Amino acid sequence: MKIGQKSLFIFCCCLGIASLIAYSLNLNKISVYHGDKFMLRVRTGSSFSTSTPSKFKDILGRLNVTFSSFQTTTNITIKVNVSKMCEKICDRDLLTCVNPDVAIVVYDNTSPDRMTFKQSFSSFPATINTTEGGKNETHVWSQKRKYCPITDLDPSFQIVRMQNSCAIIGNSGILLNSSCGTEINSHDFVLRANLAKLEGYTEDVGNKTSLMFINGETLRHLYSKLFAKRTNNQSKSNFEDLMNYTRTLNDGIIWFGKNTQESGYGDKLAKIAKFLRDKRKVRFGFSMYGVGKPISTIWKSKRYPSSGLIMLTIAESFCKNINLYGFYPYQHDSNGSRILHHYYEPNLLDFHTKNHDFEREHQLLRSLHQNGRLRLILKPCKNGF
């Protein structure tokens, strides 16, 4: 099909959200579908045919769709969709918008069978399918919209409501003997990572959990414990411990921040969601694209961000006041006492890793604390910072 004689400009604007699609076409007749429900035929020299359904004409009027004249005999089908590539994701009910790179997409009380965890939001373009000489061709466009209602992506999606006070709990041994548990529980929203142990440590770390971030390793660990054959006492004990732990979530969100299309993560999440939603009051969330690379870009880091930095970055999209506990990457405190890598593991591990730059991140957090952007707690809560 030859392209270049005439131009077709389709301006789509849905609820104040605009998307521009432009292409030069030779054609005589067009069939236009919106949402695969309505059809419009446009012939040479006319904007709308007399057979246009009035309901669809109203839709086209709202979308501000216009056509040039057409002179050739090619038949073309055009599917007009609004792009799902968005600069901001918004929740009308919550009156808030967030950057999709750091947005947490949370399923509402949807049946687990509908939870797919598919990150396909960047692929909702306008498509033109052409047929000429028995050959089918498809032309695809997509362009970012400025604001996208979260329910346009999926009616079952929500984003996190704005919170006044948030606590983000790192897993450093600096928390031991801190007596910060009561203070942590007093915050409106508490974020934790990777199923860190709470039993036996609540005086120091609290027991409130609003969001549990899990990385790929923890997801695999969670999956294996839930679905392993419980043929011996150890496997039965692992399962029971995990089920007891999930009781502490109490309507909290289990959030996976990586690309769900890698390593079968999406399928594992869907199976876990179906299993736990039948037994626990817990919600599930994921990221629109995978947060690692965007967050590294935000903080200009050459390495993959740690779980703590990931939680901080996404929390800034819905927390007015952020408090960090258990963020300390060193083996000794200011008094020279030894510090465990994780407060719940009685061993000293190598604090340095090729994956994360903990020391640089800690210096960043200190700088943000000094600038008043957050509060970094490094001493026992009874003594303050």
UniProtKB/TrEMBL annotation:
CDD domains: GT29_ST8SIA. It is found in: Golgi apparatus membrane. Its main location: Golgi. GO terms for molecular function: alpha-N-acetylneuraminate alpha-2,8-sialyltransferase activity. One of its GO terms (biological process) is oligosaccharide metabolic process. Belongs to the glycosyltransferase 29 family. This is Alpha-2,8-sialyltransferase 8B. It comes from Holothuria leucospilota (Black long sea cucumber). The lineage of its organism: Eukaryota, Metazoa, Echinodermata, Eleutherozoa, Echinozoa.
